[in-house]
Amino acid sequence: SQQGEEDPQALSIQEGENATMNCSYKTSINNLQWYRQNSGRGLVHLILIRSNEREKHSGRLRVTLDTSKKSSSLLITASRAADTASYFCATSNRDDKIIFGKGTRLHILP
Amino acid sequence: GAGVSQSPSNKVTEKGKDVELRCDPISGHTALYWYRQSLGQGLEFLIYFQGNSAPDKSGLPSDRFSAERTGGSVSTLTIQRTQQEDSAVYLCASSLSGGAGETQYFGPGTRLLVL
Description:
The structure holds two protein chains of two kinds.
Chain A: E1 5-7, E2 10-14, E3 19-24, E4 31-37, E5 43-50, E6 55-58, E7 61-66, E8 71-76, E9 85-92, E10 99-100, E11 104-109
Parallel strand pairs in A: 2-11
Antiparallel strand pairs in A: 1-3, 3-8, 4-5, 4-9, 6-7, 7-8, 9-10, 9-11
Chain B: E1 5-7, E2 10-13, E3 19-24, E4 31-37, E5 44-50, E6 65-69, E7 75-79, E8 88-95, E9 105-106, E10 110-114
Parallel strand pairs in B: 2-10
Antiparallel strand pairs in B: 1-3, 3-7, 4-5, 4-8, 6-7, 8-9, 8-10
């Protein structure tokens, strides 16, 4: 299985601080995506990074990918209360299926 | 345009009853996915439809689970003889063409509770 595994499982930080979540996977991938889920409902796509990319930015989000270590990190800078959610990494190889990890529950404290 | 919609939002049923969950994907999206998410867990892949190809049913947990996609659009996930362990949020997603790692657009999910 190439299932991504997020770390930590849960994270609480003060508003304004940076939040870092990590994802490790087992087999080679074509790309890796990060999704956010609010209140146990539908997921929202945040960012995709391809296997030949090392870093990508989108607004306050920064994603890194280290294929040698089979790991990725998601950094949210200057966190806000609205960032409270679960964050999932999802990996895919040549197959069509995306495999999701179990997620990191992020809680931003006021 | 409209996103992925699912109905019902919530479903409470008694053990042993059958349930049908509906998904309306984004218009023009040829790929459709069903996932199951138990409380506090990640997404468990159930089934994948791509155009007119035979669906990938490799994630269905038992023969009580089945899904159809009529006319390449709306999909129905049916759970027969429901069990308490079927209680979960059932999420549907669609993507434009189902390419490897293509962004999936999720519906709000159906929260199923089996008493």
